[in-house]
Specification:
Blueprint (H helix, E strand, L loop, with lengths): L1 H23 L3 H13 L1 H10 L4 H44 L6 H4 L5 H76 L3 H37 L4 H11 L7 H13 L3 H15 L2 H11 L6 H15 L3 H25 L4
Helix pairs in contact: 2-6, 3-4, 4-6, 7-8, 7-10, 7-11, 7-13, 9-10, 11-12, 12-13
Membrane topology: Multi-pass membrane protein
Pfam family, one: AI-2E_transport
Main location: membrane
C-alpha cells in the first residue's frame, strides 16, 4: 500500500511539473535569455550590490534599467526604422506604377564599359515598367507577405528581448537562492556529480557569451577600419551599429552593404569594391572563425563539438540555439566520457 501511495504522489508531481512547463512554455525563451544575461553580468551585479551597501533589490533595479537603456531602446529604434524603410519601398512601387521610373541617375552613364547599356536598360524598364509590374503583381504580394512575416518576427524578437530584461531583474535579485535550489534539485537527480555538471553548464554558457561579445567587438572594430578607409561618413556610429547587429545572425551585412551601395551611388567604385570585399571576407568572415575559437578556448571540448553545437543550435533553435547547442553537446560529451571511463574501470568476471 505504501508503494502505491508513493507511486501516486510521483505521478501527481510529474503531472504538476508538466502543467507548470506548459504554462511557462510561451516564456521559456525569454527566461533563458534573462538567465544567460544575468549569469554573464553577475560580476557587475556583485559590484553594484557592494556599492549600494548590500541592497540587492536596488542594485538589481539599477542594472535592469541600465540594460533597458542599452539594449531595448536601440532595438525599438531599429524596428521603427525598418518599418519606415518598408513603407518607403511600398510608396516607391506605387509611384512607379503611376508615374513610371524616374530618370536614370547621372552616375549610371559614367560606369566604365557598361554605362550606355545600363542607361538603355533603365529607359527600357521605364517604358515597360507598368506592364512588368502588372505581370509581377502576384509575386509582389508574396514578397510583401514575406516581408510582413519577417517584420512580425522582428517585432516578436524585440518583445522577447524586452520581456527577458524584465525577468533579469528577478534573476539578479534571487540569483543565489535560485542557484542553491538548482544545485539541490540536481543532487537529488544525479547525486555527487551535480556540482560538476552545473559548473560545466555555467562554464559553457560563459564561454559562449564571451565568444559572442568578443566576435561582435572584433567585427565592429574591423567595420570601423573599413568605413574609415573607404571614407564613409559617420564611421564611428556605423561601427557601434555593427556591434549591436553582430549579436544577431547575418547582422553586420545590414550595415556594410548599404554603405557599399552608397559609395557606388556616389560614383566611388574603387572604394565600393574594396568595402564589398572587406565586408564579405573580413567583417562577416571573422564570425565563422573567431566565434568557435573563443567558445572552445579555456574548455576541454574538442573544436568540432563546439562547431556542431554553434551551427546546429542556430539551425535548430534560432539565435538562442547559439547557447543551447554547445551546452547540450558539452553535457552529452561529458556524460559519454564519464560513462566510457566508468565502463573501463569496472572489473569483468
Amino acid at each position: 500500500m505504501l508503494n502505491n501511495d508513493r507511486l501516486l504522489v510521483q505521478i501527481l508531481l510529474l503531472g504538476l511539473l508538466g502543467a507548470g512547463l506548459w504554462v511557462m512554455a510561451p516564456f521559456i525563451s525569454a527566461l533563458l535569455w534573462g538567465a544567460i544575461l544575468a549569469y554573464a553580468s553577475w560580476p557587475l551585479m556583485r559590484l553594484l550590490t557592494r556599492i549600494f551597501g548590500g541592497r540587492e533589490t536596488l542594485a538589481a533595479g539599477f542594472l535592469t534599467i541600465l540594460w533597458m537603456l542599452l539594449v531595448a531602446l536601440p532595438l525599438v529604434w531599429l524596428g521603427f526604422n525598418l518599418a519606415d524603410h518598408v513603407r518607403d519601398v511600398t510608396i516607391f512601387i506605387r509611384d512607379v506604377q503611376v508615374d513610371g521610373f524616374p530618370e536614370a541617375p547621372t552616375w549610371l552613364a559614367g560606369v566604365p564599359f557598361f554605362g550606355d547599356r545600363l542607361v538603355r536598360f533603365w529607359d527600357t524598364l521605364d517604358q515597360q515598367g507598368a506592364a512588368m509590374l502588372t505581370q509581377a503583381k502576384p509575386y509582389l504580394g508574396q514578397v510583401g507577405n514575406w516581408f510582413l512575416a519577417r517584420s512580425a518576427q522582428i517585432g516578436s524578437g524585440i518583445l522577447e528581448v524586452t520581456l527577458s530584461l524584465v525577468f533579469v531583474f528577478f534573476f539578479y535579485r534571487d540569483g543565489p537562492r535560485l542557484s542553491a535550489f538548482v544545485l539541490r534539485l540536481l543532487n537529488r537527480l544525479i547525486g555527487e556529480r551535480a556540482e560538476y555538471y552545473l559548473s560545466l553548464v555555467a562554464g559553457t554558457v560563459q564561454r559562449v557569451v564571451n565568444g559572442v561579445i568578443g566576435t561582435a567587438a572584433a567585427q565592429a572594430i574591423l567595420a570601423l577600419i573599413g568605413f574609415l578607409i573607404a571614407g564613409v561618413p559617420g564611421a564611428l556610429v556605423l561601427g557601434l551599429v555593427t556591434f549591436l547587429l553582430s549579436l544577431i545572425p547575418m547582422g553586420p551585412p545590414l550595415v556594410w552593404i548599404p554603405a557599399t551601395a552608397w559609395l557606388a551611388w556616389k560614383g566611388d567604385y574603387g572604394m565600393a569594391v574594396f568595402l564589398g570585399v572587406w565586408g564579405t571576407f573580413i567583417i562577416s568572415g571573422v564570425d565563422n572563425v573567431l566565434k568557435p575559437y573563443l567558445i572552445s578556448r579555456g574548455g576541454n571540448l574538442p573544436l568540432v563539438i563546439v562547431l556542431l553545437g554553434v551551427f546546429g543550435g542556430l539551425l535548430a533553435f534560432g539565435f538562442i540555439g547559439l547557447f543551447i547547442g554547445p551546452t547540450l553537446l558539452a553535457i552529452a560529451y561529458s556524460l559519454l566520457l564519464d560513462w566510457s571511463k566508468s565502463e573501463a574501470l569496472t572489473p569483468r568476471n
